[in-house]
Amino acid sequence: MNRTKTAIVLVATLIVVCVPMLWQHREIIRLRQEVSDAREATTRPDPAAATAMANQSPDEDTQHKREEMELEVLRLRGAQARAVRAEAEAAQLKLQVERLSAQSAGDRSDTTAPAADALLAYLGSAVQAPANMEPGYTREGLLGAIQLAARNAGIALKKVQVDDSEFPFLLGVECEEGDFEKLKEQIKKMDGYAYNGSVGSHSLNAFSIVPGPAFPPGTGQLLRRRIMLREQAFFDKLQAQE
Question: Do residues 118 and 23 share a domain?
Fold first, then answer.
């Protein structure tokens, strides 16, 4: 009995700590992309800017370029600093998970039951699909949407699976390395869908494209907590099938 309760505590504790870890992981990816986009923007020619500069005097041209470079350097430094900060916080959370795991594994006291109940309450219960769910968010609707996004991106998907154990349904996609970025861009352009991050690798990812407004009233926070952990579990399952 004590071992069962300890196991519950361990799982629930890891769940609560892993939620911010997964969020930090997504934030790091987003910030790295922001830095990359900013650097690319500094090297990409701007026809409009070039025309405007051509009409300026040499002194005005030099001053304008200097100001633009200074602003871009400041923006890059800010984005990079946020990325470094997010990585440091993620590392601290990882250490916290390891420490809590060790503590839970060594704890055999019945006093841990209330803590386990509180953590499980934080995670909440699964939300079943609404009876009036939009067709686009059903298994068939999601499969059709992801195939359309792949066609628009000009890529081929090796594998597509749906986790319909609870709402919202998740997608698991395997594709060539680098193609997932193209797929994400097409998903963002689709009406009625949203890309809010994923758990995975360069070629295998688990994610949701069901937007927040489609969630049943009052379930937004609960579903976001569960989605992050479900994505991790779904990814692990897909990875084990390879």
Answer: yes
